[in-house]
Amino acid sequence: MTQRSSKPSRPRGPHPPRRRTGPARPPQEDPARLAALDTLRAVRQRDAYANLVLPGLLRERRITGRDAALATELAYGTLRARGLLDAVLTACSDRPLSEVDGSVLDALRLGAYQLLRTRVPAHAAVASTVDLVRAELGSGAAGFANAVLRRVTGQDEQGWVEEVAPDEDTDPIGYLAMANAHPRWIAQAFAEALGSRGEPLRDALVADDARPSVHLAARPGEVTADELAAMTGGEPAPYSPYGVRLEAGGDPGDLEPVRERLAAVQDEGSQLCALALTRVPLEGSDERWLDLCAGPGGKAVLLGALAALSGAGLDAVEKAPHRAELVRKAAGDLPITVHVADGRESGLPAGSFDRVLVDAPCTGLGALRRRPEARWRRQPSDVAPLARLQRELLTAALELVRPGGVVAYVVCSPHLSETVGVVADVARRTGAERLDTREFFPGVPELGDGPQVQLWPHRHGTDAMFCALLRRPA
Ligand SMILES: C[S@@+](CC[C@H](N)C(=O)[O-])C[C@H]1O[C@@H](n2cnc3c(N)ncnc32)[C@H](O)[C@@H]1O
């Protein structure tokens, strides 16, 4: 990291800031920023999920319309950009961020995000943040925040990237990671999956840093994608015959077709992976389908509806009881039998299913757009234990499927250890045949050399889902 020497000396702040004993200012003064700040705090202190905390705060405080949109943009944007913001704040502060009071740091991140990544005028971004700090921690901390943020105003985002990122020529992955607010190890994993550290990696990280559109899946047999698009103001999705893409904000759970169970919120990539399993031709019986990792039930509902139309039935296994309950609720009157069990030893009869989905637990590196804080929470050490579990679940699936039957191995991650690494290893040990999965994603462009399929936000507008189809030898 380059340290500037020609700029004014870095601000000195109180050590540590004094917390006010009196009540904080009431939220109505700046409800959007206060809701965003409280979300950042919940994520930092309680490891909370922002997309669960913020909607609750907005409801509880009756924040709607433009204020709700601003709170969402600020909270999610700040959480996504944390690595970049911290690098900039480090360059602007007189002490390590680890020594800055957590509440002040939340506010500094919120202020820096507004300065670097929004059109909020600089004076408003600084003043509103300083007000929030003063209300909670008093004037000493507010003075410190003011000095740090004024220094941040010294240059725009690109200027700061050039200053705090590694050199682009000697470390292109490190540079792109910082420029697009991703941890380096995740950018490295994307580069390995793409086979590139140049333009494709840049495109992938840029798309992964943008706000995703909401996708709906029309319930097969109930409503068509065209009808659902007309009901919701969305557009039929480009690849899934059941998909609709929505650009509008708001809570999609409030949409009438979703409340009426005519549709569900589901990424188009997830729809395509579940559909691919149903598209493989089978010789012989085709009546018993299995979802081995079913909670909370997104793919189980799509498969269950298709099973109902074709006269088949679906068994759904889920290890976590509360998630199994979500599958039961989502299933409604579909022909789905839910089992609370470990998929590795489910007790279901071996060789008895025609089609099996293994939508395995994974790092979720393919859905970082939808979970603002996830990229900074995940660690490289998470990968190996998950890959072990994934291999065990896929092996179990290949025992549960009948000879000649088909298994879809799906993860929401492009990390090679969770994708091709798992499939190659299990196929070698079990003798399962790897099908050309691309054939079962009709009309989807840029699927590479196969035989597996890796979807990407920058290529397909979906989450970075991975799918491999395997057939148990007859
Ligand atoms: C990626 S999620 C599945 C998402 C689901 N298919 C959907 O579309 O909604 C993986 C699920 O596997 C469950 N799980 C974790 N370990 C498991 C195991 N050993 N056996 C079965 N399920 C497991 C997790 O609780 C989680 O609900």
Briefly say what this structure is.
With 474 residues, the protein is α/β, with parallel strands linked by helices. It folds into 4 domains: 131 residues, Orthogonal Bundle (N-utilizing Substance Protein B Homolog, Chain A), CATH 1.10.940.10; 44 residues; 52 residues, Alpha-Beta Plaits (2-Layer Sandwich), CATH 3.30.70; 204 residues, Rossmann fold, CATH 3.40.50.150. Helices cover 47% and strands 12% of the residues.
- Count helical runs: 20
CATH class of the largest domain: Alpha Beta
Strand content: 5-15%
Low-pLDDT runs of 5+ residues are 1-28
Number of strands: 12
**Distinct small molecules bound, one entry per kind:** S-adenosylmethionine
Keywords: Methyltransferase, RNA-binding, S-adenosyl-L-methionine, Transferase
GO molecular function: RNA binding; RNA methyltransferase activity
Binding site for S-adenosyl-L-methionine: 293-299, 318, 342, 359
InterPro entries: MeTrfase_RsmB-F_NOP2_cat, MeTrfase_RsmB-F_NOP2_dom, NusB-like_sf, NusB_RsmB_TIM44, RCMT, RsmB/NOL1/NOP2-like_CS, SAM-dependent_MTases_sf
